[in-house]
Amino acid sequence: MPYPFSKTALVPNLTLPKDAPLEKLKLGKGLMPFLQKNLYSAGKAELMHDLFSRQSPKQLRVGSIVTVLNDQAPNTFTGVLIAIRRRGPDSSITLRNILQRTGIEMQFFPNAPGVKEVKVIRPPPKGRMRRAKLYYLRDSPDKMSMLAGGKNK
Amino acid sequence: MIGLKSTLNVIDNSGALIVECVNVLKNKVNNGWGSVGDEIVVVVQKARPVSAATQASVNAVKVRRGDVRRAVIVRTRKAVRRPDGSYVRFDDNAAILLNNKREMLGTRIGGMVSGDLRLKGWGKIVSLAPRVV
C-alpha cells in the first residue's frame, strides 16, 4: 500500500517531475527546495505563482479588497487583505471583514483543493500600503471603513 | 480558548449581557480550554434589567445577575481551524445560554455565529442565527 502505516489514509496522487534527482533526494540533499517547487496541488502551481511571487504583475497586495470562493461554507468570503504569509505551497492570506457589527478574520490557503478562486475586487489605495501586515486595522474601524468604502472612484 | 474567568458576550434574547465562564464541560478538570461548540457553565455578570411586567409573565425566561447557567460558545477570538485548513477568528468571544437539556433559553439570536457549530451538533442554533460564517 502507498502509505505503509495506515490502511485508511488517503494519499494524494502526486506525480514527480521526470528529471527529479531521486537518489540525492532520498538522502535528503536538496529536499526542501525540491518540495517548495513541486508540492503544489494539481493545476495550482501557476495560480500560486501569480498570487504570491513578488515579480508577478498580478501579485496580491496587502490592503486590497479580495474575494475567496470556496467549495464549502462559507462559499464566498470578501474582505480586506491584511496579511500575506509566503511559505511556498503553504502560503496563506488573511482577510478581514466586519459583518453584523463583529469583525471576522479568515485565513485561506490557496493551495488547498477547497479554494476555487481568489479574486481581487479593488487594489490598495495609491497602489500600495506602507505596511506589510495591517494588524492596526483591528483597532481602528474608521481606517477599515475608509479602505472598504472610501476609494470608490 | 475560553477557560475559567473568561468573559463572553451573550447574543441571544435571554436577558443576560455578559457571562463569565466557570467550567468547561468537555474536560474533567477545571483548568481546560473550551472552543466554539463546547458547552460551558457560566455565571451571569451583567444582565438587562427585568421589569415588573415580565417578572409576572410565565413565558419569559429572564436571567438575573448572579445566575449560574449553561452556555455554548459560538464565537472565539482564538482562531479555529476548519477541516479544509482555513482558520476563522472573530473580534470577541460570544455564547448562547442553554438549559440543562442543551436547549436554548432565548428565542432569537442577535449576531453572527461560527459555522463550526454545525459540525459539533448545534444545528438548531445555526438555523436561528442571522448570519453564519
Automatic annotation (TrEMBL), chain A:
Keywords, A to Z, come to: Ribonucleoprotein, Ribosomal protein
**SUPFAM superfamilies reported for this sequence:** Translation proteins SH3-like domain
Gene Ontology annotations for the cellular component aspect, listed alphabetically: mitochondrial large ribosomal subunit
Give the UniProt record's GO annotations in the biological process aspect: translation
Pfam families named in the record: Ribosomal_L19 (PF01245)
**Species annotation:** Crepidotus variabilis
The Swiss-Prot or TrEMBL record describes its family as follows: Belongs to the bacterial ribosomal protein bL19 family.
InterPro entries in the record: Ribosomal_bL19, Ribosomal_bL19_sf, Translation_prot_SH3-like_sf
* PANTHER family per UniProt: LARGE RIBOSOMAL SUBUNIT PROTEIN BL19M (PTHR15680:SF9), RIBOSOMAL PROTEIN L19 (PTHR15680)
A single Gene Ontology MF term assigned here is: structural constituent of ribosome
What name does this protein carry? Translation protein SH3-like domain-containing protein
UniProtKB/TrEMBL annotation, chain B:
Keyword Ubl conjugation (UniProt): no
Q: Where is the signal peptide?
A: none
Sections of the chain in a coiled coil: none
Extract the Gene3D superfamilies matched here: Ribosomal protein L14
| Keyword field | Ribonucleoprotein, Ribosomal protein
**What family is it from?**
Belongs to the universal ribosomal protein uL14 family.
- The protein's role, per its UniProt record: Component of the mitochondrial ribosome (mitoribosome), a dedicated translation machinery responsible for the synthesis of mitochondrial genome-encoded proteins, including at least some of the essential transmembrane subunits of the mitochondrial respiratory chain. The mitoribosomes are attached to the mitochondrial inner membrane and translation products are cotranslationally integrated into the membrane.
Q: What is this protein called?
A: Large ribosomal subunit protein uL14m
Q: Please report the organism this UniProt entry assigns to the protein.
A: Crepidotus variabilis
Q: Lineage from the top down?
A: Eukaryota, Fungi, Dikarya, Basidiomycota, Agaricomycotina
